[in-house]
Amino acid sequence: MTDVALSGLLPERATRVRELIADVPDFPSPGILFKDITPLLADAEGLADVVEAFTRLALADGVDVVAGMEARGFLFGAPVAHALGLGFLPLRKAGKLPPPTESVSYDLEYGSAAIELRSGTLTPGARVLIIDDVLATGGTAAAAAQLVEQCGGVVAGLAFLLELDALHGRERLTGRNVDTLLRVSTPSGG
Ligand code: AMP
């Protein structure tokens, strides 16, 4: 990993966050280098540092509500919302929420997926910060931004713990305000 961008953290604390994210080769399928955040979540200081860094981004973006993608976006999004005194919107995989929902479909390498938001939970005009753990190809994040806008929200920004540079996810989010806490230049996927 390179280019630690956990602005506001002491350098040794930023390095520690980086070291708490484990590389797991060939998971969940051959050729994928999975970024495992469970050691980071288990570490009180590491978790606090990441939540604090996301919270600073949200303050800079002027946010009314925080949204997070299922499932790992929930782990950071909800504590960030709480730290800011804001609400949290879960963006869930298809079929998990009771109707009525708003939905956006997007393409995966094989097949397609959809994410959903419970109708009526997003106040029209609200400025939304979308949070997830990893920006890979950007398909999930682009769909999340589209879903927020479909529901009448304004995408204030998208924030990720990790950006996998080699997959160019940022290109799917051109024109949007994208922040990542750590960038990874090694080839990876997922
Ligand atoms: P993408 O839509 O390709 O940007 O993929 C982003 C979603 O897939 C995020 O919700 C991540 O949790 C997950 N993901 C993608 N690639 C990885 C990876 N190498 N390690 C861990 N999670 C990943």
UniProtKB/TrEMBL annotation:
Enumerate the subcellular locations listed in this protein's record, separating them with semicolons.
Answer: Cytoplasm
Which InterPro entries does the UniProt record give?
Ade_phspho_trans, PRTase-like, PRTase_dom, UPRTase/APRTase
What residues does the Phosphoribosyltransferase domain cover?
Answer: 61-170
Molecular function (GO) terms listed? adenine binding; adenine phosphoribosyltransferase activity; AMP binding
Any matching Pfam family: Pribosyltran
Keyword Transport in annotation:
no
Main localization category: cytoplasm
Q: Name one GO biological process term.
A: purine ribonucleoside salvage
Q: What is its EC number?
A: 2.4.2.7
Provide this UniProt record's keywords sorted from A to Z. Cytoplasm, Glycosyltransferase, Purine salvage, Transferase
What cellular-component terms does GO give this entry? Answer: cytoplasm
- Its pathway? Purine metabolism; AMP biosynthesis via salvage pathway; AMP from adenine: step 1/1
Its UniProt entry gives the catalysed reaction(s) as: AMP + diphosphate = 5-phospho-alpha-D-ribose 1-diphosphate + adenine
* Subunit text: Homodimer.
**Role according to the record:** Catalyzes a salvage reaction resulting in the formation of AMP, that is energically less costly than de novo synthesis.
Hey, which family's this protein in?
Belongs to the purine/pyrimidine phosphoribosyltransferase family.
What protein does this entry describe? Adenine phosphoribosyltransferase
Natural source organism:
Promicromonospora thailandica
